[in-house]
UniProtKB/TrEMBL annotation:
Originating species: Siminovitchia fortis
GO biological process: cell division
Official protein name in the record: Cell division ATP-binding protein FtsE
Pfam families named among the record's database cross-references: ABC_tran
Stretches assigned to the ABC transporter domain: 2-228
Assembly mode: Homodimer. Forms a membrane-associated complex with FtsX.
Length: 228
């Protein structure tokens, strides 16, 4: 599903964020990406959905070398990738329904299909009863659930989650993890950058540790391995 071949990223200020990454992630895997702050995790994540481009190397997503994509082709790539952010990134003037529907409207789905699918994913995340509310009327956990609903509404093959529990209390964090587990159980590949030691050590999955831009550990059923 996702392969990086000798991938490096050097920013204009001279900082080398990642250096010579080689990794293969198969369809249906759940992968935690861990490491100290500034280790290169966010750059790793952003390169998968082409928010950042590598300075060198090859990134293949579902058979396509995305490092060679033209900018106008990137939106088509993202139709198969859902992204969940730490700060939710919901549109504040749109309702819960409209925020999730927006992801389908840009891909020009029929209004009837949009309504059916949006209600389906809002039921999955337990927010069917809050369709008319604005983000400001929701708790942080509810906003993150809307963000997850938006990320899966187009049935992506991959969901990228960048610190999805970072702004949430422990109880809500577990609710979000249960949702991501359920999405993964349906066959969606999940890649999650996280500092949440307890989650990684409790819900076992593959752990890829990045330090100083290099993969230093890649373990099935791994541990977090850092002080929290």
């Amino acid at each position: 599903m996702i392969e990086m071949q000798d991938v490096s990223k050097k920013y204009p200020n001279g900082i080398i964020a990642v250096n010579g990454l080689d990794i293969l992630i198969n369809q249906g895997e759940f992968v935690y990406v861990v490491g100290p702050s500034g280790a290169g995790k966010t750059t790793f994540i952003k390169m998968v959905y082409r928010e950042e481009s590598p300075t060198s190397g090859k990134i293949i997503v579902n058979g396509v070398d995305i490092s060679k994509l033209k900018n106008r082709e990137v939106p088509y790539l993202r139709r198969n990738i859902g992204v969940v952010f730490q700060d939710f990134k919901l549109l504040p003037t749109l309702t819960v329904f409209e925020n999730v529907a927006f992801a389908m409207e840009v891909t020009e789905h029929h209004p009837k299909e949009i309504k059916r699918r949006v209600m389906e994913v809002l039921a999955l995340v337990g927010l069917k009863h809050k369709v008319r509310m604005l983000p400001s009327e929701l708790s942080g956990g509810e906003q993150q659930r809307v963000s997850i609903a938006r990320s899966i509404v187009n049935r992506p093959q991959v969901v990228i989650a960048d610190e999805p529990t970072g702004n949430l209390d422990p109880e809500t964090s577990w609710e979000i993890m249960n949702l991501l587990e359920e999405i993964n159980a349906q066959g969606t590949t999940v890649i999650m950058a996280t500092h949440n030691r307890e989650v990684v050590n409790t819900i076992k999955h593959r752990v890829v540790a990045i330090e100083n831009g290099i993969i230093v550990r890649d373990e099935q059923q791994g541990e977090y391995g850092y002080e929290s």
